[in-house]
Protein backbone atom coordinates (compact mmCIF):
# COMPACT_ATOMS: atom_id res chain seq x y z
CA UNK A 1 0.00 0.00 0.00
CA UNK A 2 2.99 2.30 0.54
CA UNK A 3 3.72 2.33 -3.20
CA UNK A 4 0.08 3.22 -3.88
CA UNK A 5 0.45 6.28 -1.63
CA UNK A 6 3.76 7.25 -3.28
CA UNK A 7 2.18 6.90 -6.72
CA UNK A 8 -0.67 9.19 -5.75
CA UNK A 9 1.87 11.70 -4.39
CA UNK A 10 3.91 11.73 -7.61
CA UNK A 11 0.84 11.84 -9.89
CA UNK A 12 -0.74 14.69 -7.91
CA UNK A 13 2.46 16.75 -8.17
CA UNK A 14 2.69 15.89 -11.87
CA UNK A 15 -0.89 16.96 -12.54
CA UNK A 16 -0.42 20.16 -10.55
CA UNK A 17 2.67 21.04 -12.56
CA UNK A 18 0.85 20.43 -15.85
CA UNK A 19 -2.65 21.81 -15.22
CA UNK A 20 -1.90 24.19 -12.36
CA UNK A 21 1.19 25.36 -14.23
CA UNK A 22 -0.84 26.15 -17.33
CA UNK A 23 -3.36 27.90 -15.07
CA UNK A 24 -0.69 30.17 -13.58
CA UNK A 25 0.91 30.57 -16.99
CA UNK A 26 -2.24 32.19 -18.38
CA UNK A 27 -1.81 35.01 -15.86
CA UNK A 28 1.89 35.27 -16.71
CA UNK A 29 1.05 35.62 -20.40
CA UNK A 30 -1.43 38.36 -19.57
CA UNK A 31 1.24 40.17 -17.54
CA UNK A 32 3.54 40.28 -20.57
CA UNK A 33 0.82 41.06 -23.14
CA UNK A 34 0.60 44.50 -24.71
CA UNK A 35 -2.20 46.71 -23.41
CA UNK A 36 -4.25 46.68 -26.63
CA UNK A 37 -4.31 42.85 -26.65
CA UNK A 38 -5.01 42.24 -22.95
CA UNK A 39 -8.80 42.12 -23.31
CA UNK A 40 -8.58 39.51 -26.08
CA UNK A 41 -6.13 37.47 -24.01
CA UNK A 42 -8.48 37.61 -21.00
CA UNK A 43 -11.46 36.44 -23.04
CA UNK A 44 -9.50 33.50 -24.39
CA UNK A 45 -8.23 32.71 -20.92
CA UNK A 46 -11.74 32.81 -19.42
CA UNK A 47 -12.90 30.23 -21.96
CA UNK A 48 -9.91 28.03 -21.23
CA UNK A 49 -9.68 28.10 -17.44
CA UNK A 50 -12.73 30.00 -16.16
CA UNK A 51 -14.95 27.17 -14.88
CA UNK A 52 -12.14 24.79 -13.85
CA UNK A 53 -9.33 26.96 -12.48
CA UNK A 54 -10.14 26.16 -8.86
CA UNK A 55 -10.17 22.39 -9.49
CA UNK A 56 -6.48 22.52 -10.37
CA UNK A 57 -5.54 23.17 -6.74
CA UNK A 58 -7.08 19.83 -5.79
CA UNK A 59 -3.81 18.17 -6.84
CA UNK A 60 -1.78 20.37 -4.51
CA UNK A 61 -4.16 19.68 -1.64
CA UNK A 62 -3.87 15.93 -2.23
CA UNK A 63 -0.06 16.13 -2.21
CA UNK A 64 -0.03 18.13 1.04
CA UNK A 65 -2.46 15.75 2.73
CA UNK A 66 -0.39 12.73 1.65
CA UNK A 67 2.78 14.26 3.10
CA UNK A 68 1.03 15.35 6.30
CA UNK A 69 -0.64 12.00 6.98
CA UNK A 70 1.71 9.50 5.36
CA UNK A 71 5.12 11.12 5.87
CA UNK A 72 4.88 13.38 8.95
CA UNK A 73 8.65 13.70 9.46
CA UNK A 74 9.16 14.81 5.87
CA UNK A 75 6.20 17.19 6.11
CA UNK A 76 7.47 18.72 9.37
CA UNK A 77 11.00 19.22 8.02
CA UNK A 78 9.88 20.76 4.73
CA UNK A 79 7.20 22.99 6.24
CA UNK A 80 9.71 24.32 8.79
CA UNK A 81 12.69 24.92 6.51
CA UNK A 82 10.52 26.31 3.71
CA UNK A 83 8.00 28.12 5.89
CA UNK A 84 8.58 31.51 4.23
CA UNK A 85 8.32 30.44 0.55
CA UNK A 86 5.35 28.20 1.41
CA UNK A 87 3.49 31.11 3.00
CA UNK A 88 4.28 33.35 0.00
CA UNK A 89 3.11 30.66 -2.42
CA UNK A 90 -0.14 30.06 -0.52
CA UNK A 91 -0.80 33.80 -0.27
CA UNK A 92 -0.23 34.01 -4.02
CA UNK A 93 -2.79 31.26 -4.63
CA UNK A 94 -5.35 33.00 -2.41
CA UNK A 95 -4.73 36.45 -3.91
CA UNK A 96 -4.86 35.10 -7.45
CA UNK A 97 -8.10 33.21 -6.92
CA UNK A 98 -9.75 36.15 -5.20
CA UNK A 99 -8.70 38.60 -7.89
CA UNK A 100 -9.85 36.24 -10.66
CA UNK A 101 -13.28 35.86 -9.08
CA UNK A 102 -13.79 39.57 -8.42
CA UNK A 103 -12.65 40.81 -11.80
CA UNK A 104 -14.68 38.17 -13.65
CA UNK A 105 -17.90 38.22 -11.65
CA UNK A 106 -17.99 41.70 -10.10
CA UNK A 107 -21.22 43.37 -11.27
CA UNK A 108 -19.66 46.85 -11.00
CA UNK A 109 -16.99 47.66 -13.56
CA UNK A 110 -14.86 50.49 -12.18
CA UNK A 111 -11.23 51.36 -11.37
CA UNK A 112 -11.01 48.37 -9.03
CA UNK A 113 -10.82 46.16 -12.11
CA UNK A 114 -7.27 47.46 -12.65
CA UNK A 115 -6.38 46.48 -9.09
CA UNK A 116 -7.81 43.01 -9.61
CA UNK A 117 -5.86 42.69 -12.87
CA UNK A 118 -2.55 43.58 -11.23
CA UNK A 119 -3.11 41.25 -8.29
CA UNK A 120 -4.08 38.40 -10.63
CA UNK A 121 -1.13 38.75 -13.00
CA UNK A 122 1.60 39.33 -10.41
CA UNK A 123 0.37 36.54 -8.13
CA UNK A 124 0.28 34.29 -11.21
CA UNK A 125 4.02 34.93 -11.57
CA UNK A 126 4.97 34.86 -7.89
CA UNK A 127 3.22 31.57 -7.08
CA UNK A 128 5.04 29.29 -9.58
CA UNK A 129 8.28 31.16 -8.84
CA UNK A 130 8.15 30.10 -5.20
CA UNK A 131 6.81 26.66 -6.12
CA UNK A 132 9.99 26.14 -8.12
CA UNK A 133 12.11 27.58 -5.29
CA UNK A 134 10.58 25.05 -2.90
CA UNK A 135 11.23 22.19 -5.34
CA UNK A 136 14.83 23.28 -5.84
CA UNK A 137 15.52 23.54 -2.13
CA UNK A 138 14.79 19.83 -1.61
CA UNK A 139 17.93 18.81 -3.53
CA UNK A 140 20.42 21.55 -2.57
CA UNK A 141 21.52 19.79 0.61
CA UNK A 142 21.05 22.97 2.63
CA UNK A 143 18.11 21.85 4.76
CA UNK A 144 19.15 20.90 8.28
CA UNK A 145 17.22 19.33 11.12
CA UNK A 146 19.54 20.95 13.69
CA UNK A 147 19.77 24.63 12.68
CA UNK A 148 22.12 26.97 14.53
CA UNK A 149 20.00 30.08 14.09
CA UNK A 150 16.94 31.56 12.37
CA UNK A 151 18.66 32.24 9.04
CA UNK A 152 20.00 28.72 8.68
CA UNK A 153 16.61 27.23 9.50
CA UNK A 154 14.24 29.52 7.60
CA UNK A 155 16.22 31.37 4.91
CA UNK A 156 19.46 29.78 3.69
CA UNK A 157 17.76 26.52 2.74
CA UNK A 158 15.94 28.21 -0.13
CA UNK A 159 17.43 31.68 -0.74
CA UNK A 160 20.24 30.82 -3.13
CA UNK A 161 21.02 31.03 -6.83
CA UNK A 162 20.06 27.46 -7.65
CA UNK A 163 16.60 27.65 -6.07
CA UNK A 164 15.89 31.02 -7.70
CA UNK A 165 16.98 29.61 -11.08
CA UNK A 166 14.64 26.63 -10.63
CA UNK A 167 11.87 29.09 -9.73
CA UNK A 168 12.48 31.08 -12.93
CA UNK A 169 12.49 27.85 -14.93
CA UNK A 170 9.13 26.90 -13.40
CA UNK A 171 7.68 30.30 -14.36
CA UNK A 172 8.86 29.89 -17.95
CA UNK A 173 7.46 26.33 -18.14
CA UNK A 174 4.10 27.56 -16.82
CA UNK A 175 3.96 30.32 -19.45
CA UNK A 176 4.91 27.84 -22.18
CA UNK A 177 2.20 25.35 -21.17
CA UNK A 178 -0.42 28.09 -21.05
CA UNK A 179 0.52 29.46 -24.46
CA UNK A 180 0.37 26.00 -26.04
CA UNK A 181 -2.99 25.18 -24.43
CA UNK A 182 -4.46 28.57 -25.38
CA UNK A 183 -3.55 28.24 -29.07
CA UNK A 184 -6.45 25.84 -29.53
CA UNK A 185 -8.80 28.24 -27.71
CA UNK A 186 -7.96 31.23 -29.90
CA UNK A 187 -10.74 32.67 -32.03
CA UNK A 188 -9.41 33.83 -35.36
CA UNK A 189 -6.13 33.36 -37.17
CA UNK A 190 -4.62 36.54 -35.70
CA UNK A 191 -5.05 35.39 -32.10
CA UNK A 192 -3.81 31.94 -33.03
CA UNK A 193 -0.58 33.39 -34.45
CA UNK A 194 -0.19 35.59 -31.38
CA UNK A 195 -0.33 32.62 -29.01
CA UNK A 196 2.02 30.64 -31.26
CA UNK A 197 4.52 33.50 -30.95
CA UNK A 198 4.05 33.52 -27.17
CA UNK A 199 4.63 29.76 -27.03
CA UNK A 200 7.90 30.16 -28.92
CA UNK A 201 9.02 33.04 -26.70
CA UNK A 202 8.15 31.16 -23.51
CA UNK A 203 9.97 28.06 -24.78
CA UNK A 204 13.10 30.10 -25.45
CA UNK A 205 12.78 31.63 -21.97
CA UNK A 206 12.49 28.11 -20.50
CA UNK A 207 15.64 27.05 -22.38
CA UNK A 208 17.57 30.06 -21.02
CA UNK A 209 16.24 29.50 -17.50
CA UNK A 210 17.16 25.81 -17.75
CA UNK A 211 20.73 26.80 -18.69
CA UNK A 212 20.82 29.11 -15.66
CA UNK A 213 19.77 26.15 -13.48
CA UNK A 214 22.77 24.16 -14.71
CA UNK A 215 25.17 27.10 -14.23
CA UNK A 216 23.81 27.69 -10.73
CA UNK A 217 24.22 23.99 -9.90
CA UNK A 218 27.87 24.16 -10.94
CA UNK A 219 28.38 27.31 -8.87
CA UNK A 220 26.88 25.68 -5.78
CA UNK A 221 28.56 22.30 -6.41
CA UNK A 222 25.25 20.49 -6.96
CA UNK A 223 25.89 17.46 -9.24
CA UNK A 224 22.83 18.05 -11.41
CA UNK A 225 24.53 16.90 -14.61
CA UNK A 226 25.56 13.63 -12.97
CA UNK A 227 22.04 13.11 -11.61
CA UNK A 228 20.55 13.42 -15.08
CA UNK A 229 23.15 11.89 -17.38
CA UNK A 230 24.63 9.18 -15.16
CA UNK A 231 21.67 6.82 -15.57
CA UNK A 232 19.80 5.41 -18.59
CA UNK A 233 16.42 6.80 -17.51
CA UNK A 234 17.78 10.35 -17.30
CA UNK A 235 19.46 10.10 -20.70
CA UNK A 236 16.36 8.62 -22.36
CA UNK A 237 14.09 11.22 -20.74
CA UNK A 238 16.21 14.18 -21.85
CA UNK A 239 16.58 12.71 -25.34
CA UNK A 240 12.82 12.22 -25.60
CA UNK A 241 12.19 15.77 -24.34
CA UNK A 242 14.63 17.17 -26.92
CA UNK A 243 13.08 15.22 -29.81
CA UNK A 244 9.58 16.27 -28.77
CA UNK A 245 10.78 19.88 -28.63
CA UNK A 246 12.00 19.68 -32.23
CA UNK A 247 8.67 18.20 -33.33
CA UNK A 248 6.76 20.82 -31.33
CA UNK A 249 8.61 23.70 -33.01
CA UNK A 250 7.97 22.14 -36.42
CA UNK A 251 4.23 21.89 -35.72
CA UNK A 252 4.19 25.45 -34.35
CA UNK A 253 5.77 26.71 -37.57
CA UNK A 254 3.12 24.84 -39.59
CA UNK A 255 0.27 26.06 -37.39
CA UNK A 256 -0.85 22.52 -36.52
CA UNK A 257 -2.20 22.76 -33.00
CA UNK A 258 -4.19 19.62 -32.15
CA UNK A 259 -1.29 17.55 -30.84
CA UNK A 260 0.64 20.47 -29.31
CA UNK A 261 -0.79 20.16 -25.75
CA UNK A 262 0.12 16.47 -25.70
CA UNK A 263 3.67 17.21 -26.85
CA UNK A 264 4.08 20.03 -24.32
CA UNK A 265 2.80 17.82 -21.52
CA UNK A 266 5.09 14.98 -22.63
CA UNK A 267 8.09 17.30 -22.72
CA UNK A 268 7.48 18.59 -19.19
CA UNK A 269 6.88 15.03 -17.96
CA UNK A 270 10.21 13.86 -19.35
CA UNK A 271 12.01 16.77 -17.69
CA UNK A 272 10.32 15.98 -14.37
CA UNK A 273 11.20 12.28 -14.71
CA UNK A 274 14.83 13.01 -15.53
CA UNK A 275 15.40 15.01 -12.34
CA UNK A 276 13.34 12.87 -9.93
CA UNK A 277 14.17 9.29 -10.95
CA UNK A 278 17.74 9.30 -9.64
CA UNK A 279 16.65 10.44 -6.18
CA UNK A 280 13.84 7.98 -5.56
CA UNK A 281 12.98 7.19 -2.81
CA UNK A 282 14.86 10.20 -1.38
CA UNK A 283 12.69 13.31 -1.39
CA UNK A 284 14.85 15.73 0.66
CA UNK A 285 18.67 15.89 0.74
CA UNK A 286 19.91 17.18 4.10
CA UNK A 287 22.91 19.36 4.92
CA UNK A 288 24.76 16.72 6.93
CA UNK A 289 24.75 14.30 4.01
CA UNK A 290 21.62 12.54 5.21
CA UNK A 291 18.25 12.42 3.54
CA UNK A 292 14.55 11.91 4.07
CA UNK A 293 13.14 8.91 2.22
CA UNK A 294 9.63 7.95 1.21
CA UNK A 295 10.50 4.32 2.03
CA UNK A 296 12.21 4.96 5.37
CA UNK A 297 10.37 7.88 6.96
CA UNK A 298 6.75 6.91 6.39
CA UNK A 299 4.01 6.77 9.01
CA UNK A 300 2.95 3.54 10.72
CA UNK A 301 1.73 0.66 8.60
CA UNK A 302 -1.88 1.07 9.69
CA UNK A 303 -1.82 4.77 8.78
CA UNK A 304 -0.36 4.05 5.34
CA UNK A 305 -2.93 1.30 4.72
CA UNK A 306 -5.81 3.60 5.71
CA UNK A 307 -4.41 6.47 3.61
CA UNK A 308 -3.92 4.25 0.57
CA UNK A 309 -7.44 2.85 0.86
CA UNK A 310 -8.87 6.36 1.21
CA UNK A 311 -6.99 7.54 -1.88
CA UNK A 312 -8.16 4.58 -3.96
CA UNK A 313 -11.79 4.89 -2.87
CA UNK A 314 -11.76 8.68 -3.20
CA UNK A 315 -10.39 8.48 -6.74
CA UNK A 316 -13.41 6.40 -7.76
CA UNK A 317 -15.60 9.40 -6.96
CA UNK A 318 -13.36 12.39 -7.68
CA UNK A 319 -11.77 11.42 -11.00
CA UNK A 320 -15.00 10.63 -12.90
CA UNK A 321 -16.52 13.89 -11.64
CA UNK A 322 -13.43 15.82 -12.73
CA UNK A 323 -13.36 14.22 -16.18
CA UNK A 324 -17.07 14.98 -16.60
CA UNK A 325 -16.40 18.60 -15.63
CA UNK A 326 -13.68 18.83 -18.28
CA UNK A 327 -15.90 17.12 -20.86
CA UNK A 328 -18.91 19.34 -20.21
CA UNK A 329 -16.81 22.47 -20.23
CA UNK A 330 -15.08 21.46 -23.47
CA UNK A 331 -18.44 20.77 -25.06
CA UNK A 332 -19.74 24.17 -23.95
CA UNK A 333 -16.60 25.92 -25.17
CA UNK A 334 -16.89 24.27 -28.59
CA UNK A 335 -20.47 25.51 -28.91
CA UNK A 336 -19.36 29.02 -27.98
CA UNK A 337 -16.56 29.00 -30.56
CA UNK A 338 -18.94 27.68 -33.21
From TrEMBL:
The lineage of its organism: Bacteria, Pseudomonadati, Bacteroidota, Chitinophagia, Chitinophagales. The keyword Membrane applies. It is a multi-pass membrane protein. Belongs to the cytochrome ubiquinol oxidase subunit 2 family. The chain crosses the membrane at residues 6-32, 53-75, 81-99, 119-139, 159-183, 204-222, 228-252, 259-280, 306-327. Keywords: Cell membrane, Membrane, Transmembrane, Transmembrane helix. The keyword Cell membrane applies. One of its GO terms (biological process) is aerobic electron transport chain. One of its GO terms (molecular function) is electron transfer activity. It comes from Arachidicoccus rhizosphaerae. Coiled coil: none annotated. InterPro entries: Cyt-d_oxidase_su2 (IPR003317). This is Cytochrome bd-I ubiquinol oxidase subunit 2 apoprotein. It is found in: Cell membrane. GO terms for cellular component: cytochrome complex; plasma membrane.
Amino acid sequence: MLYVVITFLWVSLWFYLLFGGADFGAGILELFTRAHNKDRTRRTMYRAIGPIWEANHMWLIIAIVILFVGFPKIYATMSTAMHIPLIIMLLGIIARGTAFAFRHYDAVVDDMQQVYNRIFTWSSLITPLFLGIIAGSTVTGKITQQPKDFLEDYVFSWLNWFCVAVGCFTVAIAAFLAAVFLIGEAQGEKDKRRFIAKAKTANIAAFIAGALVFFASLYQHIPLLDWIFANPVGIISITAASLSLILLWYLLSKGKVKILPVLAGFQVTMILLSVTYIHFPKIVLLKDGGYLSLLEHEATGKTIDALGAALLIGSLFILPALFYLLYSFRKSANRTKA
